[in-house]
Amino acid sequence: xxxxxxxxxxxxxxxxxxxxxxxxxxxxxxxxxxxxxxxxxxxxxxxxxxxxxxxxxxxxxxxxxxxxxxxxxxxxxxxxxxxxxxxxxxxxxxxxxxxxxxxxxxxxxxxxxxxxxxxxxxxxxxxxxxxxxxxxxxxxxxxxxxxxxxxxxxxxxxxxxxxxxxxxxxxxxxxxxxxxxxxxxxxxxxxxxxxxxxxxxxxxxxxxxxxxxxxxxxxxxxxxxxxxxxxxxxxxxxxxxxxxxxxxxxxxxxxxxxxxxxxxxxxxxxxxxxxxxxxxxxxxxxxxxxxxxxxxxxxxxxxxxxxxxxxxxxxxxxxxxxxxxxxxxxxxxxxxxxxxxxxxxxxxxxxxxxxxxxxxxxxxxxxxxxxxxxxxxxxxxxxxxxxxxxxxxxxx
Length: 396
Hints:
Structural class: alpha/beta
Distance between the termini: 48 Å
Shape: globular
Number of helices: 8
Order of helices and strands: EHEEHEEHHHEHEHEEHEEEEEEEEEE
Low-confidence stretches: none
Oligomer: single chain
Radius of gyration: 26 Å
Number of strands: 19
Mean pLDDT: 85
């Protein structure tokens, strides 16, 4: 425990859903604090636990990813750790210098320029003038705001504020770096620069990283904490298991069918997982897709297309019989197809499959099933893209 920089033990925090009652409870709690009385252990009317008995530790050189659905308690946890609010029970402790970016524009005076805000933040963080003189140009260069550094921060966009805040945070040489989902507002190039900086800082600091990007969590985190409704659902170093636990919170969409005449898809599944609604598949594993359909005989030549979509129903990849020069003739009462993929190179995450069958001559869709199959990809990879291509590497 000597090298543990972030420690949370039995953290609890409650809030009230009713404004009037919350104000009354706040006055009662202040009086109890002054009288050194123990706070009430049970929930009062209209209250709920935003965090309920959360414990973990992060040592120097480790990066803990904190994930969970909206309302899980992630922001409350960060505010407790950074001292913005106090816990109702338990203890939160951070050792060493802290660099935190947990709220967009936090700590900035909108009337001051970017240059003046850097000076003010440096003073608040205890950075010496000598160090600031050495690092000032590097801070501005990292933020990419050279042309706007003497403009008032109130004229900055949300992305520009994040750039400036992150640049200041990483140049404090922190022992502890706490990063919230605010990085999501930055552009792709700046996000890539931020993640590279986080990776370098994590070698000498303890990093707490809150994000909804499972690819980034899988890429940079050595352990993961999964929260749901304020409770710990998973805590451990098997990051892929934590991601799978998080993804299990989201039910697959109901399958939707569109049919022309009496043609219809009768079966659509992953071979070997017919009775599992959300199978877990390791990254790079082979899969077989089975599709059966009843198609009217007047459609003599057919084409089939299988689409891979993420949880946002965004199209990521397709497998088409036409592109593989595979001709499908409609000469029986039921069409039976097997599509074998030797390597599933989708990044860890939740995916659904959709299937369409077309008339090869007219191009008309005969039948279509959306979100017919769902599955999770598990594993730990390096890379941000949803699809990871396999290549044969050699040194020239």
